[in-house]
Amino acid sequence: MLIKFRLGLFEHPYVDASGEVTAPTAQTRAVARRVAGRCMVLLRNDGVLPLATSTGKIAVIGPLGQATYDSTAPGPGGVPGRPPSPPVTVVDGIKAASSATVTFTKGCEVNGTDTSGSRRAQDARRAADVAVLVLGESADLSARPRPAASSTCPASSSNSWPRSKDTGTPFVVVLVNGGR
Question: d(Cα 114, Cα 103) in Å, to the nearest integer?
Answer without folding.
Answer: 21
